[in-house]
Automatic annotation (TrEMBL):
This is histidine kinase. It comes from Streptomyces inhibens. Residues 185-248 form the Signal transduction histidine kinase subgroup 3 dimerisation and phosphoacceptor domain. It is an enzyme of class 2 (transferase). Its EC number is 2.7.13.3. Pfam families: HisKA_3. It catalyses: ATP + protein L-histidine = ADP + protein N-phospho-L-histidine. The keyword Zinc does not apply. GO terms for molecular function: ATP binding; phosphorelay sensor kinase activity; protein dimerization activity.
Amino acid sequence: MVARGAVAWRALERGALGRWLRKVAPVVVPVLLAIADAVLVNGLELALELGVSVVAATALLLRRRFPLLVFLFTLPGLYIGYIWFAPMIGLYTLAARRPGRARLGICAVLLIAAHFFPYPMSDFELTAYRENTLVLIDACVTSAAPIALGLLVRTRRELASRVEDLTRSLRREDRLLADRVKTTERARLAREMHDVVAHQVSLISLQAGAVQVSTADEAARAGARTIRELSVRTLEELRHMVGVLRADGGEAAEARGLAPQPDLEELPRLIEMSALDVTYERGVVAGASGAKTVERAAFRTVQEALTNVRKHAPGARVRVRVDPVDTVDTVDTVGGERGARTGPAGGADAGRADTGGADAGRAAQGLRVEIRNGPPDATATAPALPGGGHGLVGLRERAQSLGGTLEARHTSDGGFVVRAEFPYGAG
């Protein structure tokens, strides 16, 4: 029963009624207390005293906006109606919101005077030393208590604000430290990539150049020339990537052109140098969308898919299609679907293979890339290339980071298909 009551109370606090009460109560409750004080002290018979006291209590509604004026407005209630709550609350608000030694000192003297001297002044007895001393002490305590409490609350708020600023500063320093660690790690990775990969690729390029010069076989010469071109291209991309890793900010460095920027224009060259039986069906013009990030993602998808074909399906026939789509499946930051798929300009529907050019003329909303290969040739020799399955994982992460999707699965004929869709808005 107690647990249910606690749950209900927490729900009330967090609801609209609770928020309204937290906003209104600090303003209305002091006014109600001051009015109750006025009624209890003066009763309902003393019209002047009760009226002045109620007016002083009602003025507390404006104490946050005009603290000094409201405090001065409550002094007649203390002097004539002998109320305490209204002037004490007014003085507390003044100390919490408008602190100042001179201002608080003058207001404290005014409250002491209003409390010490009786109404009317003819009732004041100068010779009543003992009674006057007790009243003066009471007036001083009545004046000092709200000032001390108001200054304490203000100091606590300032301390909380400074602690919050310090916390933000510490978090900022933590982020800077993390960025520094990342920069150091990027520099280490750059050194490792340069020392390991560049040395091996350079040896491959030198060996290919030696074969190209020494052999008389035209086919071997062409193969050696292709190997050397690929080695040079790999070294160039490696140099750019090392520059990105050594830079302070990878994205900023990429924007400045440090990283390679392959796009759809380089796909024919990539396919030509792949040494595979590839049919390329283009349904979109390179650079037509202006989304270089999307085109680069499409290029990397084709590149990784062709690499997987060489590893796992040697001798297989490959079909590469790049087409616009009207609507692309999109995913949110946690990986859930956010959009709906409509008819693509290309894809698995072979009956629409000749409509790619017409679809490219429309205002497509995205880009679809499909790489489909058949079963491997049983007579072909599979290269002993290492593979850990990280390529498709990286492609899927790249697609999701751009708001798109990637599908990779086996086909019924023993082949494999990789299909990716990217919205142009991501570029």
